[in-house]
Amino acid sequence: MKNVMLFVLLSVLPAMLISCGEDGKSGLEALIIMSDEEPGENCDAGGTRVETGLDLNGDNKLDEDEITDTRYVCDGVGEDGTDGTDGVDGTDGADGKDGEKGEAGEQGDPGTDGTNGSDGTNGATGEQGDPGNDGTDGTDGTDGTDGVCSGNTAPVINSITINSETYEGGPIQSPLSAEFSVTINATDDDADTLTYSISGGFVDIVDNGLGSYTFTGDTEGVFHFSAIVSDGCQMVMKTFSVFIDPIIYSGANQNIVYSESTYIGTISLFDAVGTWDDMVLDLHVFEDPSSMNEYSFGNMLQVHGNYVEFAVGSSSSDIRNFSFGEEIASSQTYSGNSYKDFSNYYKDFDHGVTDVNGEFQNSTGYAGLKFTDGTDVYYGWIQVSVTDYDNANIEGTLIDWAYNSEPDTPILAGQTRTYRD
Fold first, then answer.
1. Which CATH code for domain 5-77+152-245?
2. pLDDT class for 4, splitting at 50, 70, 90?
3. pTM score, two decimals?
């Protein structure tokens, strides 16, 4: 069994407003243990066991009762190796030794009377021994060991994309309680079939297959994940993080222009009746050279019976111009269901009266607003630029906007996220 490797995968950070509020409590730390899995019912050929969970007692160890998720990344099964080749024949044995001399022949019978009989001849020399037998064939080589993915190339995770944004190392922002997509792009030079898994995070995850996932986070904070890709022989891993944020932001430079020649109409942030997609901005240009001119840029608030209320400025007819970082909350006075101006220019030629008002005269600033979904109240801002307010070229530009999706929770003018690096 390999040594167990321990990695910290998750920290849930408290949301932090840009204003000087109290720090939130530190979140629990999540840990991961990776260890060998012996061949058995979880993995036929063995593999790696991945266990994750929260460090509930804060001892920087993942105890057995703290494990909340166990996954297995299994090794492939190798094929049997081919039989070894036959051994080489042994060399011929050495020649046998010469046979021993034969025994002496028996003595001849005595001769008849008269002459003596001759002596018996010696026995014949023994024949040479036969050559030794050939050596026996060598035994067959043993079977080769099972294959262990010899020559396999590990897969490569090329990129991780979150809501069409490529992960580059810093947390990618996603709205609270809203779905967002995560796509793992991986390739394998051996064209092996790849398997994908996600570890960590403590959000709802739907596996759509082939490295595509749908996440939903109902708790704000920074969440860390590991993407794991295996080709059946080797496993690779890449970490990424997401910041689940209650602030819904339009994105920079929306630049919706309201002018005499261009009028967009309704700002539609999301399709929810009764929310601020009911807001309609209005550009009014009236020219009568003989009597009067009037140019104004403001809001009309009578759609679906619910309406956006702007924070009122120093004049009861003006929308307040907030500076970056000012708090927008219940403490402001709001317009109710009535018309207010970002800027207004009025000239009565008959009576020689000129009236200029509005806090956005030839300037750019933030308007504070609140709206309701019929049950709760939410606060937000829009960044507006008004140019040439005193002539027929008057133009109002809605640059961007944001609101806090947590009911009855303030937002700062220009704030686009609660998390700050």
1. 2.60.40.10
2. very low
3. 0.56
